[in-house]
Design goal:
- There is one protein chain.
- 53% of the residues lie in helices and 19% in strands.
- Helix 1 runs antiparallel to helix 2 and helix 7 packs antiparallel against helix 8.
- With 401 residues, the chain is of the alpha+beta class.
- The protein is rod-shaped and about 130 Å long.
- The strands form 4 sheets. A 5-stranded mixed β-sheet has the order 8-10-11-13-12, with helices on one face.
- The two termini are 64 Å apart.
- It folds into 3 domains: 140 residues, no CATH class; 75 residues; 148 residues, Histidine kinase-like ATPase, C-terminal domain (Heat Shock Protein 90, 2-Layer Sandwich), CATH 3.30.565.
- The relative contact order is 0.07.
């Protein structure tokens, strides 16, 4: 299992753990809310019975004390109404909506009472109270504390989720910046370390030419090509972390030049071909873009176990002003579930692989060329196609004199 898969598994376990904590919190709060609901229902029923009896025992001083005690302890909003919803009494409602103007007539905000009564009807069934032969319906609604408790776990989970999301984003950003600094520092140090032996190799080649009169020796020429390649690689590493200069190039020429270099250093059993529009142009940094093509061709060659082919097809989408570059091999293919994972650092199917090639390729295409790269299609045992999408520049128009 590669490091990326391990990290993703840990993230999955932590997410499941957080969900379980949230579910446990909701269930615990729900059981507590139900207990409070039962207590409030009992309190309401007691209030109804005591109020009903108080009408019959108004002259009993001892009972009047009990009635006042029950009423004072009742914190529930209550409305007493008849079957036609005419309100005759209320308790525990908003005092700013209910008032007496100084006479015996009750004045209130009618719309407020209509809404309160409708809310009480939705929450609980009414109790019947008989007052001097006149039946009244008594409604109540949940207390403010109970309402808060009912929604508290969801609000709490929302706040925790936002906090975790913010913390995760901040830590991920900080970690990414730290990784970028390490990556840039390592790349520039590598470029610096390669500079001295490359200069030495160039001097040794010149010495061999003059000492053995080997100006036209093909082996010396190939050694010079490899030294130039090392210079290009050094230049690539030195550009990491800096904003590269993009120049207008013919895509077909850039890719064909690299294939010409690469195929003589690959098995003869692998056949290379390049097709498509030869006049398509795009803004490229050639040393970095060659790195992209090199990684794709190396992966394609490694995926071919015996004989096979690697083809590059260049297509221009005039409507979207884009260039499509499809790199197709006849190798062993990639499972569909791994289409995204192949670009993650550390993912590799080779025993001695580092799993950085495609991750670096994606970084160069997206960060430095403002393009896209993805697995267009793949089938196990038949091959894979990677697609690069770049912004096209103006077509080359030859001048006439």
């Amino acid at each position: 299992m590669n490091p990326y898969q391990k990290k993703r598994r840990w993230k999955f376990f932590l997410l499941i753990f957080a969900i379980l904590i949230g579910i446990a919190s909701v269930f615990y709060t729900d059981s507590f809310v139900k207990k409070m609901e039962r207590e409030e229902a009992n309190q309401f029923q007691l209030w109804v019975k005591v109020t009903e009896r108080s009408m019959l025992l108004m002259d009993n001083d001892d009972f009047r004390v009990v009635v006042e005690s029950v009423r004072n302890n009742n914190k529930l909003p209550v409305i007493v109404a008849d079957s036609a919803d005419f309100i005759s009494a209320y308790f525990g409602l908003d005092s700013t909506k209910t008032f007496y103007p100084g006479n015996d007539k009750l004045v209130y905000d009618s719309l407020y009472f209509v809404r309160q009564l409708a809310q009480m009807k939705r929450q609980h069934k009414p109790e019947t109270m008989n007052i001097f032969g006149d039946k009244k319906l008594v409604y109540y609604k949940d207390s403010f504390i109970l309402t808060q408790l009912r929604y508290f776990p969801y609000i709490q989970m929302g706040v925790i989720f936002l906090f975790l999301l913010t913390a995760y984003t901040a830590f991920s950003s900080a970690r990414k910046d730290e990784q970028d600094h390490v990556w840039v520092g390592l790349a520039k140090e590598t470029a610096h370390q390669l500079g001295t032996p490359i200069s030495s190799l160039m001097a040794w080649v010149e010495l061999m030419k003059s000492k053995f009169d080997a100006e036209d020796d093909p082996l010396i020429a190939e050694m010079e090509n490899d030294i130039k390649r090392l210079e290009i690689i050094t230049d690539r590493f030195s550009k990491i972390g800096s904003k590269p200069i993009l120049e207008d190039h013919t895509v077909y020429i850039v890719i064909s030049d690299f294939i010409r270099y690469f195929k003589v250093r690959t098995s003869d059993k692998v056949k290379f071909s390049i097709t498509g529009d030869e006049q398509v142009r795009a803004l490229l940094n050639v040393p970095l873009f060659d790195w992209v093509i090199e990684n794709l061709l190396k992966n394609a060659a490694n995926a071919i176990e015996n004989e096979g082919s690697i083809s590059v097809n260049i297509i221009e989408n005039l409507a979207k002003e884009q260039v499509f570059i499809d790199v197709t091999d006849s190798g062993k293919g990639i499972p569909r579930s791994k289409f995204d994972a192949v670009f993650q650092p550390g993912y590799t199917t080779r025993k001695r692989g580092w799993g950085l090639g495609l991750s670096l390729t994606k970084r160069i295409v997206e960060n430095y060329h403002s393009g896209e790269i993805f697995v267009k299609e793949s089938e196990l045992g038949k091959g894979t196609t990677f697609r690069i999408i770049l912004k096209s520049s103006l077509r080359y128009e030859p001048t006439t004199t």
